[in-house]
Amino acid sequence: MYSIGYDIGSSSIKAALIETSTGKSISVVNEPPVEMGMIAHENGWAEQHPNDWWKHVCTATKRLVNENAIDASDITGVGISYQMHGLVVVDESGEPLRNSIIWCDSRAVTIGQKAFDELGNEKCSEHLLNSPANFTASKLKWVKENEPEIYAKIYKFMLPGDYIAYKLSGDIRSTISGLSEGIFWDFKSNSIADWFLEHYGIEENLIPELVGTFSEQGKVSTEGASESGLNQGTSILYRAGDQPNNALSLNVFNPGEVAATGGTSGVMYAITDSLSVKESARVNNFAHVNYTTKNTRIGKMACINGAGIMYRWLMNNLDVSSYEEMNDLAAGVPIGSDGVTIHPFGNGAERVLNNRTLGTKMANINLNNHTKAHLCRAALEGIAFSFVYGMEIMKSDGIAPQVIRAGNDNLFRSDIFSNTISTLIGQEIEIYNTTGAIGAARACELHKRDFETFGKRIIDNDFVMKFRPSAEKEAYGKAYQKWKNELENMLQTN
Q1: Which domains are delineated in the chain?
Q2: What is the rounded CA–CA span in Å between residue 266 and residue 284?
Q3: Contacts by 452-459 with C-beta closer than 8 Å and gap 24+?
């Protein structure tokens, strides 16, 4: 028997088929073959149509079934991971009323900051664990203010994963973890933040029905089966935002455990059992996948929007053929990139910088001495330094990392990137060969609450290696301090 997991990203849809009894990955596919585009009607905007995600989910599902010569009836569970903070709004017939406003869209920053100022830091921190910022609730408020004719037709809002589950099952549902990432959940009262909805003028009946993160969340409908290729009646057993799900994929559930991700954006996601927050304006705090009203598990997240997208931009604009070539070039340059620095903040407002939009800056380039190899090293170091900067903020907010785990993909394939973070944080980094889609598929078994077996399967199937702090800590520290000093100057002058 098998489980299938989806990872609904902004670049592509990944789908994984795993053997339910062992957790072994059978196959992973990506759709579409080329990266999905984003719609940007204005600078700082980013939209995608929800039905494009659904189309690619259906294609990926049929590929997994056909390419692995299995019967759809042998798939017993569906798990869904999705890009966080997106907004999908539908009418009474379940049709999207507009494009989804996705995670990296920064149009609602001002709305969130205004609410934070009016409601107060203390109340937001104590009840929401966050500033309202640019999250889903603020995006919904933007629609209310700027597209009142659309807002008036809204039957329900959803997060991206909720929409895919709806297309599969016909049921509009969400989770506490999902509502918390949208800033709709009051952690003090363990209920929907009705006072916050009232402040935004959002009706509570727009909120979907709530289900448990690990539970029978619905079954594939006749229509969902016809379009997706799954069997009617297949159970939907799990859904979570991509960062909580990535942590789950790396067996990160308990205080002191940290999951790191180096994709389009970069994330350090640490677990705590404390509801106390000091950095609600710079660090995100969400209900983790194993949070319950009786078992406090909060994912504290420092996000760098300009991470892998910076390295991809460099590859597309240098005379290089692959990331591997860039990594090889970078390895020939000493720590500190001979003075060249890159600050990779060119992908929208950065929360760790108090929602500032600085843009990417390349500095200290000598046209006689420096080459594309220096740019490659400076980019890897600059993104890694951003991770370290985020971890410093989280440490000041009470996080004491004991273990860091990362997937063997994207940036963490680079020795330079991983060694820089490991050395500056002073912590080993465990690397696992897994993906969010595989984690979502495996999570289908967690409705049985057997976390011990779940973790053992990850170690048995996925462990690759460890990066340990380098003996050259002084050189790394010097390079980081130079980069950090330049960042502080940028923040003062922009």
Answers
A1: 2-245 (3.30.420.40), 304-433+462-493 (3.30.420.40)
A2: 13
A3: 454/23, 454/251, 455/251, 455/253, 457/22, 457/23, 458/23, 458/249, 458/250, 458/251, 458/432, 458/434, 459/251
Alpha-carbon span 121 to 127, nearest angstrom? 10
CA–CA separation, 177 and 166 (whole Å): 17
CA 335 to centroid of chain Cα atoms: 29
Cite the DSSP H helix spans in 338-494.
Answer: 372-396, 415-425, 436-442, 451-462, 473-493
Ordered per-residue pLDDT tens for the chain, 494 residues: 999 999 999 989 999 999 999 999 999 999 999 889 999 999 889 999 999 999 999 999 999 999 999 999 999 999 999 999 999 999 999 999 999 999 989 999 999 999 999 999 999 999 999 999 899 999 999 999 999 999 999 999 999 999 999 999 999 999 999 999 999 999 999 999 999 999 999 999 999 999 999 999 999 999 999 999 999 999 999 999 999 999 999 999 999 999 998 988 899 999 999 998 888 778 989 999 999 988 899 999 999 989 999 999 999 999 999 999 999 999 999 999 999 999 999 988 898 998 788 999 999 999 999 999 999 999 999 999 999 999 999 999 889 899 999 988 779 989 999 999 999 999 999 999 999 999 999 999 999 999 999 999 999 999 999 999 999 999 999 999 999 999 999 999 97
Phi, psi of 365 (to 5 degrees): -85, 125
Asked if residue 231 lies in contact with residue 73, where contact means CB atoms within 8 angstroms, the answer is: yes
Q: DSSP secondary structure string, 116-149?
A: HHHH-HHHIIIIISS--TTSHHHHHHHHHHH-HH
pTM: 0.90
The residues, ordered by sequence, that sit 6+ positions from 216 with a Cβ below 8 Å of its Cβ are: 235, 236, 237, 447
Closest CA to 290 of 282, 278, 298: 298
Evaluate the CA torsion angle 324, 327, 329, 331 in order and state its sign: negative
